[in-house]
Amino acid sequence: MIARLIQSRRITARDTLYEFDCPELARKAAPGQFVELALGEGEGEGSFLRRPISIFDCDGERRFFLLVRTVGRGTQAMTGWKPGREVDVLGPLGNGFSWPESAGVCVLVGGGIGLAPLTYLARRLLETGWTVRLLFSPRREDELLDALPQREKLEIRCAENRTQLPVILEEMLAQADCVFACGPEGMLETVAVKTMQRDIPCQLSMERHMACGIGICLGCAIAVRTPEGLTYQKVCKDGPVFRAEEVSFHEQP
Ligand SMILES: Cc1cc2nc3c(=O)[nH]c(=O)nc-3n(C[C@H](O)[C@H](O)[C@H](O)COP(=O)(O)OP(=O)(O)OC[C@H]3O[C@@H](n4cnc5c(N)ncnc54)[C@H](O)[C@@H]3O)c2cc1C
Ligand code: FES
């Protein structure tokens, strides 16, 4: 389908927020899902491969938003996209987050650009009466929080470094009914271990290099524990969201 770029806004030196118009996608998108964006010809290495990007926010009717970090030639080319540009988009893809119907307190843990899939989730949780607490580990760019549309409604704490994160997390878990996290895998493992120790349901949004994005190429395998033993699943189709106890961090392909 085609999404039309409405506007883009620089959030940090390397992060840009893009707003697209695409009712077909916006009506269907759920928190934790992602899109596969087609680049223009010659826009980056392997420009024929689509780029997977999480749905950062969505109005449920027309507009969706992506928060994109410039890391390579494809995401660099995107920063030159002008309003009105029509982009070929596949999505919404993946399973997305799920949460109990009865509202409580949830903790979102975002590491760097891992903030992206948690924002739309926060919107939906707030709409359904949840108290949403965010633990953000920015590394360098705490201005990334400026991209949050409902910042004033969230209770936000920032971990300044890697040693602070587990300490603050412990404090926040003392009053948490469920946890959602996205970010570097070391951070996700810490979150998984600590939530499992306390028996708090936790979902992790995982990332793998992707090609097809729709379960055909087997390029995004992840090792997952099942009652039958270790198996491999596809991050693009079975994920990107997995339960913390499913992810086998030390047995990845
Ligand atoms: C489910 C999912 C959601 C994502 N959501 C976001 C998001 O919201 N914001 C954001 O900034 N980034 C996100 N990423 C990472 C993003 O896809 C890559 O940073 C991007 O594809 C890099 O493209 P490039 O051309 O700039 O980099 P290059 O390094 O030039 O890319 C070359 C190839 O590697 C692939 N690739 C490179 N890095 C990654 C990566 N980390 N994950 C997957 N494929 C990669 C590219 O798709 C491309 O095929 C997500 C990745 C996944 C799997
Ligand atoms: S990216 Fe092709 S199977 Fe997941």
Q: What does this molecule look like?
A:
- The protein has helices at 23-26, 73-78, 116-127, 164-173, 185-197; strands spanning 2-12, 15-21, 34-37, 51-54, 57-58, 63-69, 86-93, 105-111, 131-137, 155-158, 178-182, 202-205, 221-226, 229-234, 241-243.
- The protein is of the alpha/beta class.
- It folds into three domains: 2-93, Translation factors (Elongation Factor Tu (Ef-tu), domain 3, Beta Barrel), CATH 2.40.30.10; 97-205, Nucleotide-binding domain of ferredoxin-NADP reductase (FNR) module (Rossmann fold, 3-Layer(aba) Sandwich); 208-253, Dihydroorotate dehydrogenase B (pyrk subunit), domain 3 (Ribbon).
- A hairpin with a 2-residue loop joins strand 13 (221-226) and strand 14.
- 43% of the residues are buried.
- The mean pLDDT is 93.
- The structure holds flavin-adenine dinucleotide (FAD) and FE2/S2 (inorganic) cluster.
Features:
single chain; 253 residues; alpha/beta; Elongation Factor Tu (Ef-tu), domain 3; Rossmann fold; Dihydroorotate dehydrogenase B (pyrk subunit), domain 3; 7-stranded antiparallel β-sheet; 6-stranded mixed β-sheet; 15 strands; 18% helix; binds flavin-adenine dinucleotide; binds FE2/S2 (inorganic) cluster
In round numbers, the mean pLDDT is: 93
What structural category arises from helix and sheet content?
alpha/beta
Please summarize the sheet with the most strands: 7 strands, antiparallel
CATH superfamily of the largest domain: Nucleotide-binding domain of ferredoxin-NADP reductase (FNR) module
Number of domains: 3
Largest sheet strand order: 4-3-7-1-2-6-5
Give the overall shape, derived from the CA principal axes: globular
Instruction: List the ions, cofactors and other small molecules found in this model.
Output: flavin-adenine dinucleotide, FE2/S2 (inorganic) cluster
% residues in beta strands: 25-35%
| Secondary-structure element series | EEHEEEEHEEHEEHEHEEEE
User: Can you tell me the CATH topology of the largest domain?
Assistant: Rossmann fold
Give the helix tally.
5
Helical fraction equals 10-25%
CATH class of the largest domain: Alpha Beta
Number of strand segments? 15
- The CATH architecture of the largest domain can be given as 3-Layer(aba) Sandwich
Q: How far is it from the N-terminal to the C-terminal residue, by CA?
A: 33 Å
Based on CA atoms alone, the radius of gyration comes out at: 17 Å
- Which stretches are poorly predicted, pLDDT < 50 over at least 5 residues? none
